[in-house]
Design brief:
- The complex is a heterodimer of chains A (about 110) and B (about 110).
- Chain A is mainly β.
- Chain A is about 0% helix and about 55% strand.
- Chain A is globular and about 45 Å long.
- In chain B, the strands form 2 sheets. In chain B, strands 2, 4, 5, 6, 9, 10 and 11 form a 7-stranded mixed beta sheet that branches. Chain B has a 4-stranded antiparallel beta sheet with strand order 1-3-8-7, with no helix packed on it.
- The termini of chain B are far apart.
- The chains are: A mainly beta (about 110), B mainly beta (about 110).
- At the A-B interface, β4, β5 and β10 of A face β5 and β10 of B.
Chain lengths: ~110, ~110
């Protein structure tokens, strides 16, 4: 079946440093979503990417969908303590359900 | 909108007891999903409904698990009998317009089976 992997599993950064998490699928995806889960909270939808090579920005967050639609990345510029949490990607094959990756847990040291 | 509402927030029960988790999706959303989250297995899709009809329950771990959606505004996930390995956070999520749209998750129910 479809598998979605994320690296790294954990990332510790100093406040102000950049952060990137990578998402890789074993199959070509129709679309990919990103979610953020704060400690003790629930996943919150951030964005969806659909087109090959698509890049979308939300303030300090940049999301990218690979040309082959098998990978994606989330980059945070100049991290803040409010960025702490686990970032999940969820990939979907055409006509199927989203499969969530294991997530990347980000901690930001002030 | 109050978002997706789940109850209870926390549940502690003894092994062998029946547990019922409840969910009220966002009004107008036609898809409802039940997920289980653990450290070991991450977020697992258990079952999802479209227009109150179960579409895919292949993620339901065992016959001890059952889910219903009697109407568009209410769903339940029942575990009978419960076991310690069922301890997890159970999330309900809803979306509109198809499985290709963003999901809105509820706050979850933290289940502990002792």
């Amino acid at each position: 079946g479809q598998q979605v992997m994320q690296i790294p599993q954990y990332q510790h950064v100093q406040e102000g440093e950049d952060f990137t998490t990578y998402c890789n699928s074993s199959t070509t995806l129709s679309n990919i979503q990103w979610y953020k889960q704060r400690p003790g909270g629930h996943p919150v939808f951030l964005i969806q990417l659909v087109k090959s090579g698509e890049v979308k920005k939300q303030k300090r967050l940049t999301f990218q969908f690979g040309e082959a639609k098998k990978n994606s990345s989330l980059h945070i510029t100049a991290t803040q303590t409010t960025d702490v949490g686990t970032y999940f990607c969820a990939g979907r094959n055409y006509g199927q359900n989203f499969v969530f990756g294991p997530g990347t847990r980000l901690s930001v040291l002030p | 909108d109050a978002g997706v509402i789940q109850s209870p927030r926390h549940e502690v029960t003894e092994m062998g007891q029946e547990v019922t988790l409840r969910c009220k999706p966002i009004s107008g959303h036609d898809y409802l999903f039940w997920y289980r989250q653990t450290m070991m297995r991450g977020l697992e899709l258990l079952i999802y409904f479209n227009n109150n009809v179960p579409i895919d329950d292949s993620g339901m771990p065992e016959d001890r698990f059952s889910a219903k959606m009697p109407n568009a505004s209410f769903s339940t996930l029942k575990i009978q009998p419960s076991e310690p390995r069922d301890s997890a956070v159970y999330f309900c999520a809803s979306s509109s317009g198809g499985t290709g749209n963003g999901y809105t998750f509820g706050s979850g129910t933290r289940l502990t089976v002792v």
